[in-house]
């Protein structure tokens, strides 16, 4: 049975340019390829959840414009449920231009409509029946807090994607599982050593804390100790959206009641496979591909 994961975040129309060489500021470049894809933390995570066999429900803000229509159609084609997020008249859907270098590093220029209502009247007052977990980040803190408050009332799993320090500290308090990016945790603790930074932040707090560090793996605070999980080795071509895929896969694994170490490995395998493909979050793998990387029996695609 599919597990439902509801996540709040941004959906972006991405235009991705792949350079044959390194980006040099101030110079003209000719791209080797260009892709127009679905992007944004929330949309990427929802896409990953759907491809991994989950029931993905996305809470986001898009405009009633051509870019928004294309985003919604693209997500619907990937079986992402957009019913919680009607388009907002008079507003402009978020767009990004992204430059990817040969080593997979990326540079992002984004436009976001600052006049989007922060608390639209259609924000849900109850979670869909059968919801197994919720996921949110800092790109739309009001939407994330709404989800986390609803999950907290039901004592439900709430995964916080901390790719930067939240303005609303209640996002950390209300969530059950908090996984930060390496940069965010270093900035929050002013500690360069990630294991030490994680222990400093997590010690004495309730719930789960972890930090992702790209190809260096994941540090996880478990039973008063920091545990390191190695990353899966792949030939990296595009890291865009890898963190979003990781968090989507992690939330789904927890909703499926996978044990924590298995959930971390599941998410890490999904993110690694994504990094071996171009196209941002559109490079998210299928369930069968992840199961094969983990050496598990493949029961579906």
Description:
The mean pLDDT is 95. This protein has helices at 41-51, 66-77, 141-153, 170-174, 182-189, 194-202, 242-255, 260-275, 287-294; strands at 4-8, 12-18, 33-39, 55-59, 95-100, 106-111, 131-137, 157-162, 177-181, 208-212, 218-222, 225-229. Helix 1 (41-51) crosses helix 7 (242-255) and helix 8 (260-275) packs across helix 9. The protein has one domain (4-294): Ribokinase (UDP-N-acetylmuramoyl-L-alanine:D-glutamate ligase), CATH 3.40.1190.20. The chain is of the alpha/beta class.
Q: What is the secondary structure topology, with strand pairs?
A:
Layout: E1 4-8, E2 12-18, E3 33-39, H1 41-51, E4 55-59, H2 66-77, E5 95-100, E6 106-111, E7 131-137, H3 141-153, E8 157-162, H4 170-174, E9 177-181, H5 182-189, H6 194-202, E10 208-212, E11 218-222, E12 225-229, H7 242-255, H8 260-275, H9 287-294
Parallel strand pairs: 1-4, 1-7, 2-5, 7-8, 8-9, 9-10
Antiparallel strand pairs: 2-3, 5-6, 10-11, 11-12
Helix pairs in contact: 1-7, 5-6, 7-8, 8-9
């Amino acid at each position: 049975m599919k597990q439902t994961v509801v996540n709040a975040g941004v959906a972006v129309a991405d235009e991705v340019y792949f350079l044959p060489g390194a980006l040099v500021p101030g110079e003209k470049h000719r791209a080797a390829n260009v892709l127009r894809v679905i992007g944004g933390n929330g949309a990427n995570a929802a896409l990953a959840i759907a491809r991994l066999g989950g029931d993905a429900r996305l809470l986001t803000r898009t405009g009633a414009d051509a870019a928004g229509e294309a985003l919604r159609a693209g997500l619907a084609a990937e079986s992402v449920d957009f019913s919680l997020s009607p388009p907002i008249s008079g507003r402009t859907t978020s767009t990004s231009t992204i430059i990817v270098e040969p080593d997979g590093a990326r540079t992002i220029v984004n436009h976001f409509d600052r006049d989007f209502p922060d608390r639209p009247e259609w924000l849900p007052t109850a979670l869909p029946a059968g919801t197994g977990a919720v996921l949110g980040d800092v790109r739309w803190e009001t939407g994330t807090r709404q989800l986390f408050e609803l999950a907290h009332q039901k004592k439900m799993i709430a995964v916080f994607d901390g790719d930067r320090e939240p303005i609303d500290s209640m996002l950390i308090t209300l969530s059950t599982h908090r996984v930060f990016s390496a940069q965010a945790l270093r900035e929050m603790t002013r500690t360069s050593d990630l294991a030490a930074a994680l222990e400093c932040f997590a010690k004495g707090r309730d719930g789960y804390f972890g930090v992702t560090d790209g190809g260096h793996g994941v540090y996880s605070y478990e039973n008063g100790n920091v545990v390191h999980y190695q990353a899966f080795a792949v030939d990296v071509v595009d890291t865009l959206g890898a963190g979003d895929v990781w968090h989507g896969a992690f939330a789904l694994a927890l909703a499926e009641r996978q044990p924590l170490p298995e959930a971390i490995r599941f998410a890490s395998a999904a993110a690694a496979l994504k990094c071996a493909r171009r196209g941002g979050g559109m490079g998210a793998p299928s369930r069968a591909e992840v199961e094969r990387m983990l050496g598990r029996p493949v029961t579906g695609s």
